[in-house]
Amino acid sequence: MPDENVAVPQPGPDDALIRVKACAVDQFDLTIRDGKFPTAKTPIILGHEIAGVVEAVGANVDNVQPGDRVTSTLYLTCGKCRFCLTGRETICADFKGYIGIHAPGAYAEYTTIPTVNLVKLPESISFPDGSIIANAIGTPYHALTKRAKVQPGERVIVTGAGGGVGAHAIQLVKMMGAFVMAVDIGEEKLALARELGADVVCDASAGDFSITAREWTNGEGAEVVLELVGTRTFESSLKSLSRGGRMVIVGSHTGTELKAGPQAMIANEWEILGSRNVTKRELAEVVALVAAGRIKPIVTGIYPLEEAESLHQRLRKQEIIGRVVLEP
Ligand SMILES: [Zn+2]
Q1: Per-residue pLDDT tens for 68-84?
Q2: 277 CA distance to ligand 1 centroid (A)?
Q3: How far is the CA of 97 from the centre of ligand 1 (A)?
Q4: This model's pTM is above 0.85
């Protein structure tokens, strides 16, 4: 077992030293520790959903200062390629990796982060709430606004709706003036989905949810499916789409096969879109929405760092509702 004590890191010239106040636990942490992420090299300090206070800054830094409350985007990007320069840095052509894999993460008391990643958190947002904004809220924000381009009045299906990303996707769809059908397994998750504004809920353990989707839409299908689960739900998701429908695939998707028949794709002009996390500009937008009370972060538990292992076990059994947060 690796040493659990590490030295307080020193910020590089473009970095900030962050005193971690909260770090959320994500399904992606399991993907990494299971060795399913090819470029990850152990030992790793996990933790990419971060909120904290700037303690010190490097020589070149002028955008934050000690004492600032901050959260961070998830990726290490080049800042120079055509994608970075056009506000699409999550698909950076010279991608440097992930915080929590290729740079030490926030399952720790201190971490260093390039200050280009940081967005300030107002006093009104608690650190646990702030820690989940970039991923659990930012990821569906990017998927629904920039990729699916959801329009008022459209019908949107969210799979995995009771999980950390799904719970915020429901709120975002409602905020955008669209209708939402929440799909998940188990009454507790579906009850949360209802509470957050889902117009219809469907327990996927009963089988093919496209039947409910067709009933809900008078046989037409949904204009958008936000597919947060993977191979298990993909077939039903596709069958739930309307003519001209868009399916957006997000997150730590399980499985490797997504089968779609070309004839149905052509006949219905379906669009299948990938969506990758959140840009810094969008993160600032989501922070503003949370500060204004338009989106409520769903933090269902706050635990000391020592509980990381037990939380991972609960996450693996899909027992976690919303997001849980560590306080190092
Ligand atoms: Zn780039």
Answers
A1: 999 999 999 999 999 99
A2: 15
A3: 11
A4: yes
